[in-house]
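Structure first, sequence second, as always.
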């Protein structure tokens, strides 16, 4: 029974983290099949391992809720970008960087809890199937942060005047819909 129970909890937790279309796309691109979560055998975990695994699943769920709260339908208009007085070739880099920065700020508290529980689980779990599941959760849950780190590097390579000008603009500091804003920037 524990195998099915934890599998269902894992499925529910994973479903929460992938509630938005952005995370659904990430989920699909990371090649994690939700049906495989049901097969996870947690019966062989000891009490401590089971508890830290349960805590991780709860954390995944909370992170998913937080990610949903951070979603925004607000779209940055082309006129706003043109008003910045920067080259069109910098629009995508600027939008991707500020989207990642805003997501990081919004989700940071829950993500930090998730990351700590990933570390605890990776250190305490011995079962290879459980470790693979945890590794996959980490990949998907952390994908936005990896992308943000890359975007930050790209942003820091822009001319200093572009960095300074865009860092002062309030409409980039609020959550926005990245994909629709990128489409408007074209």
């Amino acid at each position: 029974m524990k195998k099915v129970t934890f599998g269902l909890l894992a499925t529910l937790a994973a479903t929460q983290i992938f509630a938005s279309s952005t995370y659904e796309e990430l989920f699909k691109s990371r090649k994690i099949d939700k049906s495989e979560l049901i097969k996870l055998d947690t019966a062989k975990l000891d009490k401590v391992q089971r508890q830290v695994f349960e805590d991780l699943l709860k954390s995944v769920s909370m992170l998913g809720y937080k990610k949903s709260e951070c979603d925004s339908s607000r779209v940055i208009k082309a006129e706003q970008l043109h008003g910045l007085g920067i080259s069109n070739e910098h629009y995508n880099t600027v939008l991707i960087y500020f989207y990642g920065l805003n997501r990081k700020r919004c989700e940071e508290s829950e993500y930090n809890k998730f990351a700590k529980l990933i570390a605890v689980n990776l250190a305490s779990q011995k079962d290879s199937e459980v470790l693979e599941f945890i590794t996959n959760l980490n990949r998907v849950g952390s994908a936005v942060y990896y992308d943000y780190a890359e975007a930050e590097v790209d942003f820091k390579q822009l001319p200093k005047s572009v960095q300074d000008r865009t860092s002062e603009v309030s409409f980039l500091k609020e959550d926005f819909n990245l994909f629709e804003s990128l489409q408007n920037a074209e």
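Margin note: Residues 45 and 51 are 9 Å apart (CA to CA).
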